[in-house]
Amino acid sequence: MQLLERVFKLTEHETTIRTEVIAGVTTFLTMAYIIFVNPSILGAVFISGCLFLAVTLFGLRALIISGIPQSLRSAITVGIGLFLAIIALKSAGIVVKSDATFVTLGDLHTAPVVLASLGFLLIVALDRLKVPGAILLGIVAVTVASFFFGGNKFAGVFDAPPSIAPTFLHLDIKAALAGGFLNVVLVFFLVELFDATGTLMGVAKRAGLLVPGKMERLNRALLADSVAIFAGSLLGTSSTTAYVESAAGVQAGGRTGLTAMTVSVLFLACLFIAPLAGSVPAYATAPALFFVACLMLRELVELDWDESTEVVPAAVTALMMPFTYSIANGLAFGFISYALIKLCTGKAKEVHWMTWLIAGVFLFKFIYVGG
Questions:
Q1: For this UniProt entry, which segments traverse the membrane (predicted)?
Q2: In 13-37, which positions are buried (b, 16+ CB within 10 angstroms) versus exposed (e)?
Q3: Among 256, 324, 291, which residue's Cα sits nearest to residue 30?
Q4: CA dist 116 to 94, 167, 289, Å?
Q5: Which tens digits make up the pLDDT trace of 280-306?
């Protein structure tokens, strides 16, 4: 216990081992779906990962973060909340695809919709009553109910891990450097850079860990993120990144590396118990994500609503994340609109030089590479 206190400074962060473990399990359950996603185009991932690691080691990524306007920082958290909301509603079947109206209301009589709705109400009630592990209890309750009312079937507990031989070190660098694939590398790089950076900032801000002037811990997170992408391409997986579902762990009380360690141990265990993790349906974690999404919208109060040159770019940033299904695209439109609006209103001097640079890079991407 003393070792954990010394390493993770639990008292300093006003948390406990129990809270951190619950937060870790909650985070794991909301992102366990990624276990069943297949890898692809490893050469492009490897090259973009190398670039990503380089910009982190040389401090460029931290410099980029320092140049993000305060209004856009708040917008990132709000945008991630909206992004989580659309993911949750889709996973629950409450919102479905429509050829006529893009999206529409799903069938409210299905078991997933009913169970997800009840799970959401349960989580809100438990959280209001300050019951520890409210989000985790909601996920577990819906999962258990899914076996009785949702047609969910228990797939077992243990399974042998698959061989990584088919993808381990199978990098086609030559093909990735070909003319057409260079565009893919650029897209991967920009998405990795701004998608992960945006997620880290949004989740850290929600946790109260983003302290102005203190970048040391954030730099460590950025480095870990960069190394993971580089190593992931060698091991045979597509780009790794910081997951927006981490916000669920933050809401559950996670504040230290002990939460991350819990998540990593559970993912390691999934090499052998993947069927058990697969028994948690998407609509069981949807209520947790939607609850967290609702709470992340509180960042809207931080915006100066009397200054349209700040509010409009922030709104563009937040709205474009769910509507383009990409955090990076939301940031792209946010930076571009922020720079152009400031320029057109005679406030160009208020714009940080890094903001101009990032806006220019995104403009180049949209013009010469496309979406």
A1: 21-38, 44-64, 76-96, 108-126, 133-155, 175-201, 318-341, 353-370
A2: bebbeebbbbbbbbbbbbbbbeeee
A3: 291
A4: 9, 37, 11
A5: 888 998 999 899 888 888 888 888 899
Contacts of 167 (CB under 8 A, 6+ apart): 39, 42, 235, 236, 237
* Cβ atoms within 10 Å of 153's Cβ, excluding its own: 9
- 364-370 average pLDDT score: 76
φ, ψ of residue 102 to 5 degrees: the values are 75, -60
Please tell me the distance from the alpha carbon of residue 195 to that of residue 20, in angstroms, as a whole number.
Answer: 25
CA 220 to CA 216: how far, in whole Å?
6
**Buried-state track 49-84, b at ≥16 Cβ within 10 A, e below 16:** bebbbebbeeeebbebbebbbebbbbbbbbbbbbbb
Distance between CA atoms of residues 305 and 42, nearest Å: 45
Both tokens assigned to 222: 């950025």
pLDDT band for 39, please (50, 70, 90 cuts): very low
97 forms beta bridges with 103
Burial class of residue 276, CB neighbours in 10 A (0-12, 13-18, 19+): middle
- Tokens standing for 35? 């276990």
Directed axis angle between helix 282-296 and helix 17-31, to 10°?
120
Q: Is the pTM of this model over 0.85?
A: no
* Helix, coil or strand: residue 105: strand
Question: Rounded to the nearest 10 degrees, how much is the dihedral formed by the CA atoms of 46, 47, 52, 57?
Answer: 100
pLDDT exceeds cutoff 70 at 184: no
> What are the residue ranges spanned by the domains of the chain?
11-298
Give, in order, the Cα–Cα distances in Å from 235 to each of 15, 66, 206, 272: 35, 32, 32, 18
Cβ(95)–Cβ(105) below 8 Å: yes
Higher pLDDT pick, 152 / 186: 152
Which is more confident, 92 or 296?
A: 92
Tokens of residue 365, six digits: 């991407």
Spatial distance between the Cα atoms of 74 and 132, rounded to a whole number of angstroms: 28
